[in-house]
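Q: Given only this backbone (289 positions), what sequence would you predict?
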């Protein structure tokens, strides 16, 4: 029996508890889906949950603000936490169970093992946020081992993260299929993100520059520009024209290796990270000649 769409998911906070639920579902021959999140859920997250509910018979959503993926100067303490609201949102999307562990449950005393992914984890976010992907890979591998899903869902919004997880799963022979869903955007194009809650109304307006700049690149490529140095210069100047913005990076890279490319003569990933008065936002888009 699959949980009806209106039913509130079962919430468990212990590894043993979620293992029991998943094991029971598995014994019944159900396909298990996992959607890892840090909560403060929005339509982007919910699109992954709906996709999981469609493809699987038992959908687990994890809600855990993983401390090990935040740098010492980052926003771990301020990161929005809204479990009650999250559970209400999940009730309509077909989530069967929510795993919301404590830090002690995930990193008990004596914890000493880390997953370090090379190559694809090194540029872009890896460079700006040292240790970030080590924390991400470690917690995601733990979640995959705890829930043992058939399929796990990630968003293209965090393109590099999805690539890092795919690399890890392939390299460590983790028996799970990784699926990636498109970025869900606000009507004005801003990629949905839990961090958008930090933005003042004025900064929220400024934040539309990320998507506007990516769209400008797409238009230039469509009209024949292939030189990524010129495209990047234009993209940078568009962003810098908005007061209060700082660029962490603007990159034109190979979608598989994340290495820089000179020409858009095949699909290229345009990735950017921009700070708007203290709030760090990322976005990306694939462009093709
Ligand atoms: P987070 O809670 O930010 O760790 O995100 C949890 C998952 O949701 C990750 O796989 C993200 O890539 C995905 N996600 C976040 N924002 C979006 C979005 N706007 N569209 C699609 N997926 C998203």
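A: Predicted residues:
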């Amino acid at each position: 029996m699959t949980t009806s769409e209106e039913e509130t998911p079962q919430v468990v906070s212990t590894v043993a508890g979620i293992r029991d639920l998943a094991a029971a579902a598995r014994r019944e021959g159900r396909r298990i889906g996992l959607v890892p999140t840090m909560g403060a859920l929005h339509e982007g997250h919910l699109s992954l949950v709906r996709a999981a509910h469609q493809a699987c018979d038992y959908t687990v959503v994890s809600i855990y603000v993983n401390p090990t993926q935040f740098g010492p100067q980052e926003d771990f303490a301020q990161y929005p936490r809204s479990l009650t609201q999250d559970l209400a949102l999940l009730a309509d999307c077909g989530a069967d169970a929510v795993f919301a562990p404590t830090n002690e449950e995930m990193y008990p005393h004596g914890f000493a093992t880390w997953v370090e992914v090379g190559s694809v984890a090194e540029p872009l976010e890896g460079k700006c946020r040292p240790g970030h992907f080590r924390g991400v890979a470690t917690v995601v591998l733990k979640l995959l081992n705890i829930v043992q899903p058939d399929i796990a869902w990630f968003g293209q919004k965090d393109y590099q993260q999805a690539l890092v997880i795919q690399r890890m799963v392939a390299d460590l022979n983790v028996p799970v299929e990784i699926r990636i869903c498109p970025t869900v955007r606000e009507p004005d194009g801003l990629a949905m993100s839990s961090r958008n809650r930090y933005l003042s109304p004025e900064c929220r307006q400024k934040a539309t520059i990320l998507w506007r700049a990516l769209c400008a690149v797409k238009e230039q490529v469509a009209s024949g520009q292939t030189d990524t140095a010129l495209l990047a210069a234009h993209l940078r100047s568009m962003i810098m024209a908005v007061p209060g913005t700082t660029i962490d990076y603007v990159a034109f890279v190979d979608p598989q290796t994340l290495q820089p490319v000179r020409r858009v003569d095949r699909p290229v990933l345009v990735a950017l990270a921009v700070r708007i008065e203290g709030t760090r936002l990322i976005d990306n888009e694939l462009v093709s000649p």
